[in-house]
Amino acid sequence: MGKREGTGGQVWLLALGMFAIGTDLFVVAGLLPDVGRDLGQSTASAGQTSAVFAVTYAVAAPVLASLTARVDRRVLLLAVLAVFALGNALSALAPDFAVLLVSRVITGAGAALYAATASAVAARITPPERRGRALAVVYAGMTSAIALGVPLGDEIGALASWRWAFGFVALLALITIAGLVGRLPSIPGTAGLTVRQRLAAVRVRRAPVALLTTALWIVGTFSLYTYLGTVLDTVTGVGATGRAWLLLLFGVGSFAGVLLGGRLADRVDARRGLAGTVGALAVVLALLAPALHSTAGAAVGLLLWGLVHWLSFPLIQHRLLAIGGEHGDMLLALNNSAVYAGQTVAAVVGGLFASAGLLARLPLAAAGFALLAVLCALASGRSRTAEEAEAPTEARRPQRVDN
Fold first, then answer.
1. What span, in angstroms and rounded, lies between the C-alpha atoms of 260 and 241?
2. Could you tell me which CATH number the domain at 202-391 has?
């Protein structure tokens, strides 16, 4: 099976798996009050399910990627999707809160390994000149979940219960497995490195600053996004219906942004392109401070915000693959950890502003973190051309994909 086929149905099936993971994140968040009520917990306590998922994801991504490095990528993807489906099925059937927390650990581990592996597989089965677009398609699954997560959560909660939401996610994972079984080729793992050696990828030149760029980029957006519902209630003054539509606009912008970002990553120097897109994000976040005071301003602002934020993600991944060489897969896994570390910091930052009654000023703080990300991107080294000239020959050689 040729590499060029990787730009078609195979990559879109990988994206469906990412849609399942994103749906797990965004659908469930809107159902936490129902989860707490059914299991005798407060909404805040029920929120621990999201925290457990995020922490597991952040810690498991690099460790599990190391432990499973020798496993055929096709076998690994199918196995972790099965684990992810099993975790969600257990969540749906959880008799008490303790079992639910355990199920979220299982689900987070499966999601972490799938996300890192799916990105690397998409890059390996795709011609180099189309790699950015392939990475973008995979993460278009995640941005689609952002666009549809809130409406899906509301509908499932209204028609049935939170348990059916977990069951729906498990079904999505099983559909992805069924599609990949007959379409994805065998892709050998990488042998010969220990877990310690693979985790040493963080010491690759320019990698620490590149990962810090990711974390700051995430803090910039999610310090505001985590509390966006409250901001839309208190600052913009919209009700539940208006809030859902505004969040949908953010998701639509995100979907368009990640696809455009993929094309951009195939055409420009990744470092400079990243600095430009994150700089645009800082400007949009700053403009959101006045824009959020009106519904029309919020609508335009959220659409542009989703667009410019997700423009950066394919560029981030393209850059990590370029600087990582033979450690590229591991840097993608570490990048997932940086994303979730950034979300943890973002929740703290947003919480401080909420406690101080300063939610209207949160967009300006978010813009400040985005500017720090720009500085990191500019400081992270030379152009992609220079990096590829230094990279080991084997790392730059197109990889053979066996049937």
1. 29
2. 1.20.1250.20
CA distances from 365 to 219, 228, 285, 288, 305 (A): 10, 14, 9, 11, 15
Digit-coded pLDDT (tens) for 31-58: 767 788 899 887 667 767 877 887 887 7
CA 335 to the chain's CA centroid: 10
Q: How far apart are CA 146 and CA 107, in angstroms?
A: 19
Q: In whole angstroms, what is the distance from residue 360 CA to residue 211 CA? A: 29
User: What is the CATH superfamily name and number for domain 1-192?
Assistant: MFS general substrate transporter like domains (1.20.1250.20)
How many whole angstroms separate alpha carbon 163 and alpha carbon 169?
10
C-alpha atoms less than 13 angstroms from C-alpha of 329 in its C-beta half-sphere: 25
What single-letter DSSP state applies at residue 402? B
Q: Which of 260, 322, 258, 291 is nearest to 123 (CA)?
A: 322
Q: What is the DSSP string of 301-365?
A: HHHHHHHHHHHHHHHHHHHHHHHHGGGHHHHHHHHHHHHHHHHHHHHHHHHHHHHTT-GGGHHHH
**Ramachandran quadrant class, 126 (left: phi over 0; alpha: psi -120 to 50; beta: rest):** beta
pLDDT one-digit tens code per residue, 100-122: 999 999 998 999 889 878 878 88
Long-range contacts of 323-326 (CB under 8 A, 24+ apart): 323/204, 323/205, 323/206, 323/207, 323/210, 323/381, 323/387, 324/201, 324/204, 324/207, 324/395, 325/204, 325/391, 325/392, 325/395, 325/396, 326/190, 326/392, 326/394, 326/395
Cβ–Cβ under 8 Å, residues 81 and 90: no
Q: Which amino acid is at 49?
A: T
DSSP-based helix, strand, coil % in the chain, nearest 5:
85, 0, 15
Helix (H) or strand (E) holding 383: none
Q: Where are the domains of the chain?
A: 1-192, 202-391
Query: Which residue is associated with the tokens 């299991």?
Result: 39
Are both 1-192 and 202-391 of the same fold? yes
pTM of the model: 0.72
